[in-house]
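Interim report, section 4.2 (structural modelling).
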Amino acid sequence: MSLELAVAAALFVGVIAYAVLGGADFGSGFFDLTAGSSRRGAELRTLVDHSIGPVWEANHVWLIYVLVIWWTGFPESFAAAMSTLVLPLLLALLGIVLRGASFAFRKYAATLAQARLFGVVFATSSIITPFFLGTVAGGIASGRVPIDGTGDRWSSWLNPTSLFGGVIAVGTCAFLAGVFLVADARRSGQERLAEELRVRALAVGAATGVLVFAALVPIDHDAPTLAAGLEGRAAPLVVLAGLAGLATMVLLWRRRYAVARITAVLAVAAVVSGWGVGQYPWLLVDEVTIADAAGATATLQGLLVAVGLAVVVVVPPLAYLFRLTQSEAWSRSDH
Amino acid sequence: MLTADVVTALTRLATEAEPAGLLPAREQMALSLGWHIVLACFGVAFPAMIFVMHLRGIRRDDPVALGLAKRWAKVSAVLFAIGAVSGTVLSFEMGLLWPGLMGTYGDVLGLPFAFEGLAFFLEAIFLGIYLYGWGRMPPKRHVLMVLPMAITGIVGAYCVLAVNAWMNVPTGFRVVDGEVTDVQPWAVLFNQHAFLQFAHMWVGAYMLVGFSIAGVYAVGMLRGRRDAHHRLGFMVPFVFASVAAVTQPFVGHVLGLGLDERQPAKLAAFELAETTESPSPLRLGGVLVDGEVRWSIDIPRLGSLIAMNSPDRPVPGLDTIPEEDHPPVNLTHLAFQTMVGIGTLLAAAVVLFWYQRRRGRDLLDRRWFLRFAAAAGPLAVIALEAGWVATEVGRQPWIVYDVMRTTDAVGDYTASLWWLLGISTVVYTAMTVGAVVVLRSMARRWRAGDADLPSPYAPEVHAPEASS
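Predicted structure of the assembly:
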């Protein structure tokens, strides 16, 4: 593997991790928003808080990881994407800021009215953020970001591929969150809540699945390079995504929630990887390849050192955190 | 005086045809960085204080200390959350506002950010473990979970400061025929200026956080709450702040040495040296109007002594520097003097406090001292912000000193950036209000005796948190 490709792969691992881990956090906002009145939704909202409270900040760092590797490893393409896609990026950023702040504020809010206000901001921004990040992915994947950064500020993200990308991002986030929340509810012994969430997760899963595969039609016209990749090199991943998604639905149906988490993660990771493999070897589709976009060699080597160090020092505590939060001991709903 | 600078900036805008997006991009960066930097300080310095408090609680079986550590952890959860998001804003803005810088030098300056990201990752992970570990982990293991946060805060700060030091003293690359080549990212990470700049910022962070937290308890004591809780809550951060405050003048002085060679224009602006005088006076206050220094109090020789470490070596004046390379002089000078002035005042105050304590007098019994202690936090914030204004504005018109002008780094969004600035101002104001409201209501409930805050998601029906 060439040096550039190794760095690009490390970058993309970050994209997948953010889509899966950050995605599950964002999706929780969808369930939070649709939980109903304060009285009716209290149980679910407490579950959401309990479920993502300890992990959301760590999951959020994947985004920073992606940005940093991108601007360090492939500086020109980063500047180009930022210039062209400035509007959806700013809107996503607004969502990120409002979501993080209001989630923290809600937990310590003084009154129900305050908590409700912060809650609505948290939940709404949890939906708009993945949408706009999805449109960014669509803009890049459909070849609308020229390397000089002069792409159209509107049509670069208001196009069929981007809009489908946005809706798919929202859907996959909600799907993941649904599966994880069902498992959390079961683990903390809230059977009634688990039943309620199960039905909604199944509905979200079905809708998202249909959406992902329906998107292939407009992408075929709108983003031919990506479409060719999806039908060619990335085809196994597309199939895998379908199978894993289907398996998740079956497992949810049969109330096998613990296993369903694995297939759900697999399905979403496969969808995202499908995009990456589908557009390979382009970094900005039809504009610049990974090899051509790469920065200085010494820097790429340094980045790989940083990534290697991350594997050694970040992954073990991260695994410890996840193990704690997904274990019985931390599932007591007294917190 | 500030107006004078804005006017200069505007006239320059007209005469030199600066990109229309430059001014709003600068203001945007100043707003988001200036806001974030305060929270970043809490990320750097607060964990160490929580650690000391928590450790004391466990070691001495002290419920007061343990209670304080628990509350501080909750406060740090709120501050860390908004610090994380405002930090994310900055990483977007690097590309959105300064595509010229990131496109050209992204691979030169990027590596320190990669390590900073790593450190931040660890900090976020251990924060999650620590916050939710109360009552769920053996106490001895639990308290150790703060330590990685204290360490990664320091590492992260170093990395960011390494980039800023590089912008002031660029190294680790060559420009050949307009192309950046021979990139040595490790030289950037370990550039020789980074350590001193980091030290200055690190100590400043302890001052800011130490005085701010201590000030909260000083206010409590002023209102007559003179229990062990308030005394301890005051003392631990105040000790940190005291050590930092007396160290800072030395660090700052060492950092400043050699500035005449590194960035003579910045030094001239700091010292308000219009012309080269031998020996140079120390100018207190004053502004530059039409090329003349007005309303300053000059102390002979002291300028040479402080800035040049010599009785008579002159501070090189602005007259030795081409007009187009001058930074906004008045803003730089006044910001620098604000920093130094407040720093000196705070250092003197802590020396007085500890001296009196040795002599058996407790200034905590004096209302005037408590009032001062309450003001020390905001003063430290102002000093830190002023320090940043001094070093950043003093670097202008360069974004990378002597290599790239800020005008060449900015994007071509023109006037639409004003909209962004307007929206950002609203969002940051809302976030500030939200944080203040939430932190105050936490404090109010704690005072009312609620050790554990109730889960706020429903009217009374839902069971309150029991063990948090």
